[in-house]
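Appendix C: a fully annotated inverse folding record. The material below is reproduced so that readers can follow the format used throughout the book. The structure is listed first as tokens, followed by the designed sequence.
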């Protein structure tokens, strides 16, 4: 009977560790997203000139059309010219809403002036808009899994009796 109890305790401890590990992975991913979004807010505002602003389209058999926005802009830092193709730090997203793309084209027309944000440590990096910091505000939720999983593990291991 005691053997069964130890096996059950180890099983429960393993489940607790698995829950804590999954929570920790999500905490890390949310923190990385928040940190990147926060870091770009320190980048230098720089005037830029939009040279490309158009719709990208893709469609495959039996799939509705998807759209994304293609942008490229020029900017100067310390007398050197650079170009960037990034709206936000993350890659361009595809979606089914042509209205979103049209709104971006209207906001950033070809030949139009805009403000971009340039990484002072690497002027080759620039964006037109920041990512949301919302990931940092929701990090508490996966932390519940870390704390709960560790609590389950500790409780299961405390319940073990020495041989």
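Designed amino acids, in order:
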């Amino acid at each position: 009977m005691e053997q069964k109890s130890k096996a059950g305790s180890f099983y429960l401890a393993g489940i607790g560790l698995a829950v804590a590990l999954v929570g920790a992975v999500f905490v890390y991913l949310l923190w990385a997203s928040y940190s990147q979004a926060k870091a770009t807010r320190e980048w230098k505002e720089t005037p830029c000139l939009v040279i490309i602003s158009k719709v990208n389209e893709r469609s495959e058999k039996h799939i509705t059309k998807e759209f994304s926005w293609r942008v490229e802009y020029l900017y100067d830092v310390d007398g050197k010219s650079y170009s960037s193709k990034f709206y936000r730090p993350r890659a361009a997203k595809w979606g089914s809403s042509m209205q979103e793309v049209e709104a971006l084209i209207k906001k950033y027309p070809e030949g139009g002036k805009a403000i971009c944000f340039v990484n002072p440590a690497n002027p080759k990096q620039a964006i037109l808009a920041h990512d949301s910091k919302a990931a940092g505000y929701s990090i508490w939720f996966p932390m519940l899994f870390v704390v709960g999983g560790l609590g389950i593990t500790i409780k299961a291991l405390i319940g073990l009796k020495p041989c």
